[in-house]
């Protein structure tokens, strides 16, 4: 048994998390805010990311901190939502002061959820502003909420055989070290329990009674047509949060190791049809080995991915792994 203690992610100080969503049209936002500023890193492994201000997290970029990360639905349309976060933070005097103006730095990544139910509503400034207000309560929930509202998995056979997914959260403590993960799981592949190896959610068989095995289908499709691939309608996005003290360079490494949580839990993953992106955020002063934090980042991310599907039941008639229907 690992010497880890599961904790609530709200036990990690100096960061606030909130959701806002439109359940009718199945899209939403998840907000992570640190008003004092936080060093951050990023790792992008999917071939089709929708993101904003990612270059701020390059170790060669001037700024040492950002003030918020927004995880959103809406694909590239959802990138407009970050303006609502800018307005919220600027009203509070958060950001880099230039004369009387405060310029907050907000990074964002989006999932493609436009075909889940409807493309008539996308996350916008108003929705993101509401997510900021909800972050003040700092009591985030899981499932079909926030950025995970319109998430789905197992889309290699099309929407008729996919399953519902959502937003997952998990955190653990090792001594004074705390590491957590927030993730919206919207994958082409299937989600596995990384400990048992069993498929939890994914592409279903034609009769809907079992799992089709997306990895197997990928190989079989190749034998029929070597150059045909599913459309780019996926992306798993998330963030690792730690109270350990790191700069951007180390956080980029931790984000990369956090991506291993995706590799442990989703198959296929990191394809050209996904935009898989993981942030890493440092919001404390605990001294810790980057190897330990990165390894723990992979673990909590895998746990959060598992929660994302197990906390998501049938939603808009799309079946989910959780028995209780919404």
Short synopsis of the structure:
The chain is of the alpha+beta class and 326 residues long.
Order of the strands making up the biggest sheet: 1-12-13-16-18-4
As a whole number of angstroms, the C-alpha radius of gyration is: 18 Å
Overall pLDDT level = 94
Q: What structural class results from the helix and strand content?
A: alpha+beta
Write down the secondary-structure element order. Answer: EEEEEEHEEEHEEEEEEHEHEEH
Shape from CA axes? globular
Largest sheet: 6 strands, mixed
Query: Multimeric state of these chains?
Result: single chain
Instruction: State the helicity in percent bands.
Output: 10-25%
Give a count of the beta strands, DSSP E runs of length 2 or more: 18
Beta-strand content estimate: 25-35%
- How far the N terminus sits from the C terminus, by CA atoms, comes to 35 Å
Determine the number of helices (DSSP H or I, runs of at least 4 residues): 5
Low-confidence stretches: none
Notes on the protein architecture:
By secondary structure, the protein is of the alpha+beta class. The chain has helices spanning 82-91, 125-135, 214-224, 248-265, 290-310, and strands spanning 5-7, 16-22, 27-38, 40-44, 50-52, 66-72, 96-98, 101-103, 106-110, 152-153, 163-164, 167-174, 177-184, 190-192, 199-201, 237-244, 266-267, 277-286. The protein has a 6-stranded mixed β-sheet. The protein has a 5-stranded mixed β-sheet with strand order 2-3-6-9-5. Helix 1 packs across helix 2 and helix 4 (248-265) crosses helix 5. The mean pLDDT is 94.
């Amino acid at each position: 048994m690992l010497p880890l203690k599961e904790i609530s992610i709200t036990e990690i100080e100096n960061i606030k998390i909130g959701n806002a969503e439109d359940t009718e049209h199945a899209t939403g936002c998840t907000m992570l805010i640190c008003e004092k500023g936080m060093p951050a890193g990023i790792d992008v492994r999917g071939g089709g990311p929708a993101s904003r201000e990612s270059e701020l997290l390059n170790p060669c970029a001037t700024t040492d901190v950002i003030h918020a990360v927004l995880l959103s639905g809406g694909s590239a349309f959802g990138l407009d939502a970050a303006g609502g976060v800018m307005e919220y933070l600027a009203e509070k005097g958060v950001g880099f002061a230039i004369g009387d103006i405060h310029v907050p730095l907000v990074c964002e990544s989006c999932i493609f959820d436009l075909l889940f139910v409807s493309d008539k509503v996308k996350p916008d400034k108003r929705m993101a502003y509401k997510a900021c207000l909800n972050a003040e309560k700092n009591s985030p929930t899981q499932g079909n909420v926030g950025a995970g509202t319109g998430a789905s998995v197992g889309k290699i056979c099309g929407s008729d055989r996919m399953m519902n997914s959502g937003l997952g959260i998990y955190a653990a403590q090792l001594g004074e070290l705390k590491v957590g993960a927030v993730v919206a799981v919207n994958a082409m592949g299937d989600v596995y329990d990384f400990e048992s190896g069993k498929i939890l959610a994914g592409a279903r068989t034609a009769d809907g009674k079992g799992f089709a095995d997306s990895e197997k289908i990928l190989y079989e499709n190749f034998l029929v047509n070597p150059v045909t691939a599913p459309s780019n309608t996926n992306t798993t996005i998330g963030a690792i949060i730690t109270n350990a003290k790191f700069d951007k360079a180390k956080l980029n490494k931790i984000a990369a190791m956090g991506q291993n949580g995706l590799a442990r839990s989703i198959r296929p993953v990191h394809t050209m049809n996904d935009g898989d992106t993981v942030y890493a955020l440092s919001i404390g002063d605990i001294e810790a080995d980057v190897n330990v934090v990165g390894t723990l980042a992979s673990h909590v991310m895998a746990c959060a991915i598992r929660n994302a599907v197990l906390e998501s039941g049938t939603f808009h008639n799309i079946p989910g792994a959780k028995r209780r229907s919404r």
